[in-house]
Amino acid sequence: MTLQLLDVIYNRSSCRDFLDKPVDDWAIENLLEALRRAPSAGNIQPWHFFVILNQEIKERLAKAAYGQNFIAKAPIVFVVCANPIMSSLGYGKRGRSLYCIQDTAAATENLLIAAEAMGLAGCWVGAFNEEEAAKALNLSHYLRPVAIVPIGYPKKKRGPTHKKPMDEIVTIIK
């Protein structure tokens, strides 16, 4: 049973410490479906998703992420890649430089929300050397790694993290 959507969103927080427990195929399939169902500019879907179970590749990704070793310790790691060329075919320079990034960001958030709803947890890692990550995955020249997302069962209960007050981050224009 999953939590109500707003509860999932409000309670989600990044997790870097996972149980040594595999993520089953049903969960992986549902996480992939959540990625696939993300919105994208013009419904172009300029992405490719990698599911990493191979320990050596996870270690290479952790190294590419400047030694964030929790990546290698996760049972599963997703790498979300953008296809800027595909976006540029529909939207030119703006598609290449912005829309493909926005689209993969939406997919990555879907992944994290779906994981939370299923009792899993993850962490959106954006601090990594793109070239090293691309080499670790033997990526085609047209794919750009945008997010490394380790996923697993959290070792300890997490709660919501501190967020800035609304009056600091919101302007309502009437």
Automatic annotation (TrEMBL):
The keyword Acetylation does not apply. InterPro entries: Nitroreductase, Nitroreductase-like. Pfam families: Nitroreductase. Keywords: Oxidoreductase. The lineage of its organism: unclassified sequences, metagenomes, ecological metagenomes. GO terms for molecular function: oxidoreductase activity. This is Nitroreductase domain-containing protein. Gene3D superfamilies: NADH Oxidase. Residues 9-78 form the Nitroreductase domain. Belongs to the nitroreductase family.
